[in-house]
UniProtKB/TrEMBL annotation:
Alphabetical list of InterPro entries matching this protein: PQQ_b-propeller_rpt (IPR018391), PQQ_mDH (IPR017511), PQQ_rpt_dom (IPR002372), Quinoprotein_ADH-like_sf (IPR011047)
Lineage: Bacteria, Pseudomonadati, Pseudomonadota, Alphaproteobacteria, Rhodobacterales
Protein's recorded name: Glucose dehydrogenase
Domain Pyrrolo-quinoline quinone repeat span(s) in chain numbering: 94-695
Disordered, as annotated region: 21-87, 545-572
Source species of the chain: Pseudooceanicola batsensis (strain ATCC BAA-863 / DSM 15984 / KCTC 12145 / HTCC2597) (Oceanicola batsensis)
Cofactor requirement: pyrroloquinoline quinone
Length: 721
């Protein structure tokens, strides 16, 4: 069903930016700092002293081997060395990547309504000018969501050019190009967004009193003045912090930042994408916090050596290699002083027997850290011993749930959890799958149990042979034969080598980086999702022909393959081959029946489905890559999320049909749509200028989704009276 190739992996006005030593201290601040030699880098976490609570008791830790245990949280009291600041409000502005500080993607604006949305007209189109050239051809997936602050839109392009434009006219104010080279592109050139920070102790007109901060593909943190785009000279080296510090050998494309940083109590928190499937000896998944004014390292959270490497590793050493990383967006909790990290899997996704106990404990978990110290507060694991690449890709959402400060966590498997954000304890029922198959490859490693949400899941029933589908009878026969050739035992079928195995949901099933939107007034969650399997096979080492990225001359063809399509997994006994979005080799059509993606409304109080419908038409899809131009809602793969408004509208692009839609939140009916000039794989925003509401999305395309690549930023509004 080309071109829907589903080969896709994927401020705030804050406070006290001064160094920690210059801040108000806690009662225990006179205690001497812990010596680095108390827990050497890479130490077994069971032999490392547990963090102490204010009562002096060791915090309760999750068992190192969680294969058959229930999800639990380890808890310590957060530090209060940096005080909370008032947050910018969503409405007139869109000041955070997730809209508001809670990442709800909900706007209180109501000028555009279900009754008048059909009158929307395009107000302006801005072109970033950032289009692929040379070796970047075929590697662009910008996924960009601008911020709107004051009179300006603030954004990054695919190659990290920082841009400010007038929010009412689209006229460019300034741009700053940090000069990211093409060889830094990992799977794709992506920059999902930026963050802003206003220094509380600077004069409003001082240079960089408010600064725009982004992470780049070549692993830098860059800060520029919001008014001029000039680099903030007080931040790192002339506005730049090198994130390769203490990571190891600099291999372009292996370690990159694609998500906006989170800023909490004056600390800029960032992880990085580590290119999957290359080698067990991969760059560390360390998450670090930097002072928002000076760019100095405030702390590092290396999950395998949290105390030893808190201030960076000892001289001559690096952060623990190969650990799970946070490639997606964290959520800042200014009130509690926490930052919530959705972690991915280990660097070798599909084989786990060589992993450390620390990797087993933290992979595919939501981790809450004290953002002022980098100490773990709690963590909640959604997959035990993950060998399916079920990274947590969504940004979690803060909300008040039945009187408790809570956090809503969607997963790639389709499960949606609501947790107490102070403790990590589930507030909605969590069940347990038992007696799961362990397979022949590593039966002693695969977990026989897995947690599932009993409150709500986007996951559909297991596949059956009759579900094998084809555009023609020959297609259907071919796909059914492939089904019977494969190993498939339902959800969490373990990897296999002698036969392929069907993974359903696939690694981009459920919720991904587009995240969910939450209408907190109506109590409705809007979740778009993918519903398509992968067809995988572990490749014995003597059959692996691909080279890991650090052994390629210039990153090889790293941008042309989906994650796991032909990855060497060096250090493991197997490489991995993945048919992402399992398709017939005869007509290029999927082997599973449509819909391949949908959008659902969920009652926030009860977890019940209010409506569910396919997302995406067949207009750009057909056999042999020929667009059918048919308007039928077949439900296509989709990437990118939605925004919901107080008037009851859901705005979303995401699907591969290049349409931008307005949907009635009460009924699921499409009330308006328009054709985009390129793929709309990005999260939209809405904002107001001089009393006029605008809605905006970037149409920049996505090479893995096979949508046309562009450079457009497009805004619509109702006709002026």
């Amino acid at each position: 069903m080309s071109p829907i190739l589903f080969r896709l992996a994927l401020t705030a006005t804050l406070a006290a930016p001064l160094p920690l030593l210059a801040q108000e201290t806690t009662p225990d601040s006179d205690a001497p700092p812990q010596q680095q030699d108390e827990a050497p880098a890479g130490a077994d976490p069971e032999t490392t002293a547990a963090p102490q609570s204010d009562a002096g008791e060791a915090a309760t830790a999750e068992p190192a081997d969680t294969a058959d245990s229930e999800p639990v949280a380890s808890v310590v009291e957060p530090s209060q060395t940096r005080v909370a600041a008032e947050q910018r409000q969503v409405g007139v502005d869109w000041p955070f990547y997730g809209g508001d500080a809670q990442a709800t993607r909900y706007s209180p604006l109501d000028q555009i309504t279900p009754e008048n949305v059909s009158q929307l007209e395009e107000v302006f189109t801005y072109h970033t000018g950032d289009l692929p050239e040379g070796t970047a051809e075929g590697k662009y997936s910008p996924e960009t969501t601008p911020l709107k602050v004051g009179d300006d839109l603030l954004m990054c392009s695919a190659m990290n050019i920082l841009i400010s434009v007038d929010a009412a006219t689209g006229e460019e104010n300034w741009r700053f190009d940090p000069g990211v080279p093409n060889d830094a592109i990992p799977y794709g050139a992506s920059c999902r967004g930026v963050a802003i920070y206003t220094a509380p102790d600077m004069a409003d007109d001082a240079p960089c009193a408010t600064r725009v901060i982004q992470g780049t593909l070549d692993a830098k943190l860059v800060a520029v003045d919001v008014a001029t785009g000039a680099p903030c000279e007080d931040f790192g080296e002339n506005g730049t912090v090198d994130l390769w510090q203490d990571i190891g050998a600099r291999v372009p494309g292996w370690y990159a930042v694609t998500a906006p940083p989170a800023v909490v109590r004056g600390v800029v928190v960032t992880g990085a994408q580590v290119k999957d499937g290359q080698a067990e000896d991969a760059p560390s998944g360390v998450v670090r916090g930097y002072d928002a004014i000076t760019g100095e390292l405030a702390w590092a959270w290396d999950l395998a050596a949290p105390e030893a490497n808190r201030d960076g590793p000892p001289e001559g050493e690096v952060y623990t290699r190969g650990t799970p990383n946070m490639w997606t967006a964290a959520t800042a909790d200014e009130e509690l002083g926490h930052v919530y990290l959705p972690l991915g899997n280990s660097s070798v996704d599909y084989y786990g027997s060589n992993r450390s106990e620390a990797e087993n404990e933290f992979a595919t978990s939501l981790v809450a850290l004290d953002a002022t110290t980098g100490e773990e507060v709690w963590h909640f694991q959604t997959v035990r011993r993950d060998v399916w690449d079920y990274d947590l890709g969504s940004q979690a959402t803060l909300l008040d749930w039945q009187g408790t400060p809570a956090i809503l966590l969607p997963s790639k498997q389709g499960d949606i959890y609501i947790l107490d954000r102070e403790t990590g304890e589930p507030l909605t029922p969590v069940g347990e799958l038992t007696d799961l198959p362990t397979g022949d490859i590593e039966p002693d490693y695969i977990s026989t149990t897995q947690p599932i949400s009993e409150w709500h899941t986007l996951r559909k029933p297991p596949l059956e042979p009759k579900d094998a589908w084809g555009f023609t009878p020959i297609d259907q026969l071919w796909c059914r034969i492939q089904f019977h050739r494969a190993n498939y035992q339902g959800f969490f079928t373990p990897p296999s080598s002698e036969r392929p195995w069907i993974q359903y949901p696939g690694y981009n099933g459920g919720s991904d980086w587009g995240s969910v939107a939450v209408d907190t007034e109506r109590g409705i969650i809007i979740a778009n999702y993918n519903d398509i399997p992968n067809y995988n096979r572990l490749v014995p080492r003597d059959e692996v022909t691909s080279q890991p990225i650090h052994k390629q001359e210039s990153g090889g063809d790293s941008g042309t393959n989906a994650e796991g399509a032909a990855d060497p997994q060096e250090g493991a006994p197997y490489g991995i081959s993945v048919n992402a979005g399992w398709r017939s080799s005869l007509t290029d059509m999927p082997c599973s029946a449509p819909p391949y993606g949908g959008i659902r409304a969920i009652d926030l109080e009860t977890g019940e489905t209010l409506w569910d419908r396919p997302l995406g038409t067949a207009r750009r899809n057909g056999p042999f890559g020929i667009p059918s131009m048919l308007p039928f809602d077949i439900g296509t793969p989709n990437n990118g999320g939605s925004v919901v408004t107080a008037s009851g509208l859901v705005f979303i692009a995401a699907a591969t049909d290049n349409l931008f839609r307005a949907i009635d939140i009460e009924t699921g009916e499409t009330l308006w749509s328009t054709v985009l000039p390129a793929g709309g794989q990005a999260n939209p925003i809405t904002y107001e200028v001089d009393g006029r509401q605008y809605v905006m999305v970037t149409a920049m395309g996505h090479h893995f989704m096979e949508t046309p690549v562009g450079d457009e930023v497009i805004a619509w509004a109702l006709p002026e009276e």
